[in-house]
Amino acid sequence: MKKQFLKHAILFPVIICSLIIGCSQTISPSQMQKNSTETSLSGADITESQQIYEHSEPPSPCETQKQSQEQEEPAYEMKHYTQAQNEHSSVSIEYPVFYGMENSKELNEIILETVQNMSTLAPELFPLDTQYTFSYQSRVTFRNSDIVSIVFWGTQDIEVSAFPTSTLKTLNIDLESLKTVALTDLYNIDENFKELFFEKSFYPSVPVSNYEESDFSEMLKLQTDEYRSVSQFSLPDTITFFLTPEGIVLCLFASHDVGDHFEAELSYDDIQSHYIGKYHFEE
Fold first, then answer.
1. Could you please report the per-residue DSSP string of 227-240?
2. Burial of 185 (0-12, 13-18, 19+ CB in 10 A)
3. Structural domains of the chain sorted by starting position, each given as residue range(s) with its CATH number in brackets
4. What's the pTM value of the predicted model, to 2 decimals?
5. What is the pLDDT of residues 160-217, one digit of tens each?
6. CA angle 185, 190, 193 (to 5 degrees)
């Protein structure tokens, strides 16, 4: 009896230690998938940023299999493009790289080409050795199965210019055709649309503007015919835009002393009667 007791006393701690070691080495499926994703992206020939956008925290080892399956994986991560056209210049452009989609490769190529074009000076206007500094942030403001909308905003400081300028650019891509989407692909821009803009627009929900919300009414007034010799609404292809879950943000020209660009948002409901597009705006 004493020998059996000693045998069990020795075996019991061994079994407990084995269980603890085995548990500590367990890797969840979501962790394996995340590691695989990071490895596949690490070969890109572009400087990476550190920020990864996720919809939720990764599951802990103690969560159930059902909770792990319901966990959303990241749809994109942000990188930085830093290649300038000469050694005297500096470029930093934040941009998204998508993955886990059927056409991620083609979509990323379009975005990268756009970013590369943003990083250089127009050769017909500036010599190749002109010194400049470009700095842009970016945000994916809307994405569903039909369309993705991206906004870039920042500053351009060119050596031969009198002062730095604030710049905003947008990119809206049809995820089926992989073509860029213009404002006139979505809405009929006529005098009635213009009236709705001045009656119904509001301060954008995405903070990319150079003015405060309290100045919105005054800034909007500067876009009226009273202050503009030519309205951009008569040239709708000159109006850039980006989408949000609540509405569409129109980006108009502004003088340098008030920020170089002006944005105002319209809710989808307020301009539904002018909609001619094929897309739905539910995320």
1. T-SS-GGGSGGG-E
2. middle
3. 45-180 (3.30.565), 182-283 (3.90.640)
4. 0.73
5. 888 899 999 999 999 999 999 999 999 999 999 999 999 999 999 887 877 889 999 9
6. 90
